[in-house]
Amino acid sequence: MRRIDHTSAGPRPLPDYVAPGLRLLFVGINPGLVSAAAGHYYANPRNSFWRLLHGGGLTPVPLLPHDDARLPALGYGLTDIVKRPSRGARDLKRAEFVSGRRRLTRLVKRLKPHAVCFNSKTAFEGYFGKGAFRRFGPQTGRLANTPVYVLPSTSPANAAVPLAVKRRHFRALKAWVETVAKVPKKA
Q: How many domains does the chain have?
């Protein structure tokens, strides 16, 4: 496992938890202030990411935010398109997404995960551009020749989507990853 730190003024960004050849790299929008203060991904107790990760069958045991560094050993990675913590996505600048796109592309090219999963429409559009999103699930576009999937955001700000619906998406992600991870990647 490789831990990559990103430093800046203000609340500290979260490190990437990545390794070469991951089954799946999760990409969030950016760390929220609660997560940045805790020093762990998806640390807001109202964020359903960790419950859904296990509920969707992606992890053998329930994990908590302080377990985020364990994910690469399970074949999963964590990063964000924008590393700067904020109260919400509306506080981010377009230039941060442009810079984040370049960084994410380099990361995926270097580590070659089998698949990339954006944890929200906003994160996906932050990479692919406004209007690129059509539906949740597998996407036709690829990131550095890597298949892409989009989940509904697990953020408490996305309370309009019920937990049961998000769980179905996580289960579908698990099934999709199992098929994608078996297919040899083209160079």
A: 1
pLDDT at res. 2? 45
Question: Is 185 part of a structural domain of the chain?
Answer: no
Question: How many angstroms from the chain centroid is the CA of residue 85?
Answer: 15
Nearest one of 20, 14, 21 to 49, comparing CA atoms: 14
In-domain check, residue 165? yes
Closest CA to 74 of 142, 13, 6, 26: 26
The owner of tokens 């954006």 is: 118
Closest CA to 150 of 180, 117, 173, 179: 117
pTM: 0.89
The pLDDT of residue 31 is above 90 = no
Q: Which domain holds residue 40?
A: 2-180
